[in-house]
Amino acid sequence: MCNLHLNYPPSGLREYFSQTDERTAAPRIPVMVNMTSASVSSKKNQKLQDTPHRRTHSLDQIRAANKNVSMMDEYSDEEEDFQGADQEAMPPSPEHEMKKTALEEEPLDQIDFSIFSGNLRRDDRDNSRNCWRISDGNNFRVRSKNFCYDKSKIPAGKSLMDLVAVDWFKDTKRMDHVARRPGCAAQVASEKGLFSLVVNVQVPGSTHYSMVFYFVMKELTSGSLLQRFVDGDDEFRNSRMKLIPSVPKGSWIVRQSVGSTPCLLGKAVDCNYIRGPKYLEIDVDIGSSTVANGVLGLVIGVITSLVVDMAFLVQGNTPDELPEQLIGAVRASHIELSSAIVPKLEPDTSE
To answer: What are the residue ranges spanned by the domains of the chain?
Structure first.
């Protein structure tokens, strides 16, 4: 039995995953519940303490200390998620299921991955270290065509976009709008007439880190949910951008704390959206939430021992927006902090 050193007390970690589809989710650690509540809309640019008070918890201590603590129920889907859905209507007929609408993207021709590069290498072999690979979409469950009627979910299957590169950056300050960097995958895609969605996960600290995912497709389908998300306002984007996390390999505490509960990113942390001519960048500021910082305090010290899966998608709320489809999914394996590089960013002229 090993002990973990936590950089932060895991205050309110369950609140971080409160935006959920699950009626009955996997149990979480009771100690995550019996702490002072922290708001998910905490102050912007809040930094992790560099030398926080450290606490050591063994699994036996956690179980003993929380033996009689009742678990909080997961939030279930709110009715307002289904604007326009007739609650007494019958599920779509098989004939309706067969009809493709403009909201359901068609896979396009294969993209030449060889033109893209990032500083974190891709390695599709099992047990590889300090690398990424594309995660199988069927590992994630998303809302089905009939979700509004029966809450059913299905394996996600094929993603809408191709993950073509991952960058792993560090700097003395937070790195915003990284898609402006000359030679990055988003700029290469733009030169080829392709569209990119860039997810920049920003990790605060005495050294700031960013893990940047570049998802590419030939073009947006006009009228699709993805197109409406890309060209929508920030309120719409914040209410729809969803992350499904998973930790297939890691300590028991980390795996149970993170779970696989879907999370609406814009309601958990601050997200900044930069719309370029042929891309949308989403800067996900983990430092804006004390709850998310608590998660990091649990994870960052053992990151090299973890395999983490992340799926990104736009939440579908009404029958014509379903079934949900992944934007893309990634597996990051045994990441080394020392492998991050300092990016060369041009002055930001987007503001």
So the answer is: 110-339
Which residue matches tokens 């589809």?
21
The CA distance from 183 to 170, in Å, is 18
pTM, two decimal places: 0.75
DSSP string, 143-189: E-TTHHHH--EEE--S-SSEEEEEEEEEESS----GGGSTTSHHHHH
Residue 8's Cα: distance from chain center in Å? 21
- DSSP one-letter string for 39-71: -TT--TTPPPPSSPPPEEE-HHHHHHHTTTPPP
Instruction: Give strand pairing partners of 195.
Output: 217
Please give the residue that has the higher pLDDT: either 345 or 188.
188
Helix (H) or strand (E) holding 92: none
pLDDT in tens, 6-65: 444 444 444 444 445 554 444 443 333 332 333 333 444 444 444 333 334 444 433 433
Query: What distance in Å separates the CA atoms of residue 170 and residue 210, rounded to the nearest whole number?
Result: 6
Nearest 5 degrees, angle CA 70-CA 19-CA 134?
115
> What share of the chain in percent tops pLDDT 90?
57
Q: Residue range 99-113: average pLDDT? A: 55
pLDDT at residue 231 above 70? yes
Residue 247 in contact with residue 213, Cβ under 8 Å?
no
DSSP H or E segment with residue 16: helix 13-16
Q: How far is CA 23 from CA 49, 78, 138, 151, in A?
A: 35, 11, 20, 9
